[in-house]
């Protein structure tokens, strides 16, 4: 087990190196001069520009730039700074809580709604509730996030006035609409996954054995049916949580939340390579850690899986 | 006259399907007395499982049940869900067919046993755990106190079935319904499980309703027999009468279809003159049989056929020299077959026999090129196939046909039959559209199916018909070697008999050599010229069928032979004592 975790952690190194390299290369490949973009319409003397270019290693070949950047991280935990001189770690520190809250609220909403809807749909198979879940989940999956976001803003924000439309000035309620928007697709997929897994489990031999023991139907379902059918749901939720950071780019823009997603978007436009790479590295790290946790959780839920 | 513990009266079951109602059971009545074993026999679709399930209320929602089921005089069908639930597991319990899936994989055995006791208020907490340990000890799980904390996958198939039985007897039921309890098990394990059930029945005076298709199991266990066909009882009576003097033609047909493991001195052996020719050292013996006269009805379709290729200069169809096979998992190799040596001459059938985990299917896989050979040589018609360059290997592979166990899974459901049969020709770029279809018609004719099935799909055919298609496909390229991996073990006995007849006829007609992998000694006896017995990846014994199956030298072979039940209660009772003596001598 410990050996397995160590091996997995060692695998992180190449994953992170390769992904940062790719992101760095992409930012590098964007045409235009970032220093000029920084200056905007104001005039800038050649001397200032040269100093700035040197400070950000912009004249080095691409690979050298990249290695200098990685070296800084490894030796001094220096993730670089923006062209305005603000450290990237500072930006992350300020914006991470927003995105983390958004992801957490989304996770809670989609897990609860998805699993409950899936269970009820399986138990009332082919009845009204099942049909309702089937149709509504397809609709949610099919609608683009943008449309769902605007719809929620219109109905719950403008018409009903229940939740704020944008910004983060109203505490947790500011996050409800963005989280619902982000949860829509995954709730639908999760509900369908749980439904089909539970239906399979209820048809299984060990559920029949449990029924033959004389157990109550509800006990049979909760003790024998559910646990087995939730194992794939855990995999899905994990993978989804990891990909939420990507989804946050759109949602944070729609709802004007000052989170990491919005920052990445702005930094790409401003060609702030170090910021983009810093945040994306964080996303990648988060992704691999979540995947490791899911795999370990899997082993806990299903005793047939053992890691050596 | 004691009261019956379980009694079915005029049971009728129909299922509502999208094609209208289907009557599965059409008026079935019989009783089970305390301490009595009643065997319900019949083939798939006879309604034997459906009938017995009515006593537990375990049928799916679309079933309509009429008639009356009395459990100790109480009518089960009129009970409420709650009343029914109190019966399940306490007065009446079940042992299922598939021990691998009958236990919940994510719960410890202790949880599942304790739960069975707690549901019916028999015992709670620590007391329930102690009782569960005692139950496991009772059903013969060694080291029960530590083992009970393990999960089902940490037990073998036979042990899992013991655990299921422990659950079934937990609350001291009046009657146990055992639905094919040993079908998924190896013969030696089957014999042990049947012994256990017999002991428990005598100890607890429990009635057992045994559902099975295996007449050998019936002879071993049953007091009375109920024969079912298409949802009706065709014959019922004491086991000696039904198996000894069956009245109904269906019962007779069922008994005649059972492949028999013949003992030395069996009259049907007289009709076969066995010629043994020794060649080289151990493990290189080959035999040829020639039939003298017309074989009688029983041995028709058995090994009373001549070996086609008598040319002694021709290389063997298949030859294994010091073969070792291994599976690789995360760069760690596990050796599963060791030092395997055998020769299959052209036109010869070799039975490869063993229990699960013996490596017999692994050998078949290696011959098919689906597994790399770790060590040794695997010669097909003289050339070491694994060492050949890809192109020659492919050319050589057309000499090998294959028939798999499950005809439902080994035919692509989206391919029409014609395409299935001709696919080997497409793969090896042989013939054009017309000649391929002509070949398909020819083969369908050979496996006795009408050419009208060419455009049908596998699901439109029955299991036996599908296996005929599998055989036809295996023969498409006229192979010199056929690999048959348990080709009939998924089929009903009567279907199996027909397929085996066909198989041996085709073997005579086409003269292919065959590696016939099977766990069923009787089937091997019916077909094979020689036999190789494997255990845990090693060769135990090999020789002519007669040598191995009737004059076995090794104790493992003797155990295997002794464990196979025969459909004659008196003979089986004698064999049972002999087996116990053999095991006692070995212990």
UniProtKB/TrEMBL annotation, chain A:
Domain ABC transmembrane type-1 residue range list: 96-298
Pfam families for the chain: BPD_transp_1, BPD_transp_1_N
Domain of life: Bacteria
Membrane topology: Multi-pass membrane protein
Segments crossing the lipid bilayer: 12-30, 102-123, 135-155, 175-194, 229-255, 275-301
Cellular-component GO terms for this entry: plasma membrane
Positions in coiled-coil regions: none
Subcellular localization: Cell membrane
BP terms from Gene Ontology: transmembrane transport
Keywords: Cell membrane, Membrane, Transmembrane, Transmembrane helix, Transport
PANTHER family per the UniProt record, alphabetical: DIPEPTIDE TRANSPORT SYSTEM PERMEASE PROTEIN DPPB-RELATED, DIPEPTIDE-TRANSPORT INTEGRAL MEMBRANE PROTEIN ABC TRANSPORTER DPPB-RELATED
Listed name of the protein: Peptide/nickel transport system permease protein/oligopeptide transport system permease protein
Automatic annotation (TrEMBL), chain B:
PROSITE patterns: ABC_TRANSPORTER_1, ABC_TRANSPORTER_2
Keywords recorded for this protein, A-Z: ATP-binding, Cell membrane, Membrane, Nucleotide-binding, Transport
Signal peptide (UniProt feature, chain positions): none
Entry GO terms, CC: plasma membrane
Example of a GO biological process term: peptide transport
Domain ABC transporter positions: 6-255, 318-561
An example Gene Ontology molecular-function term: ATP binding
One Pfam family here: ABC_tran
Region (Disordered): 278-315
Membrane topology recorded in Swiss-Prot or TrEMBL: Peripheral membrane protein
InterPro entries: AAA+_ATPase (IPR003593), ABC_Ni/Peptide_Import (IPR050388), ABC_transporter-like_ATP-bd (IPR003439), ABC_transporter-like_CS (IPR017871), Oligopep_ABC_C (IPR013563), P-loop_NTPase (IPR027417)
Subcellular location: Cell membrane
Family: Belongs to the ABC transporter superfamily.
Record NCBIfam families: PRK10419.1, PRK11308.1
PANTHER family noted in UniProt: DIPEPTIDE TRANSPORT ATP-BINDING PROTEIN DPPD, OLIGOPEPTIDE TRANSPORT ATP-BINDING PROTEIN APPD
Protein name: Peptide/nickel transport system ATP-binding protein
UniProt source species: Nesterenkonia sandarakina
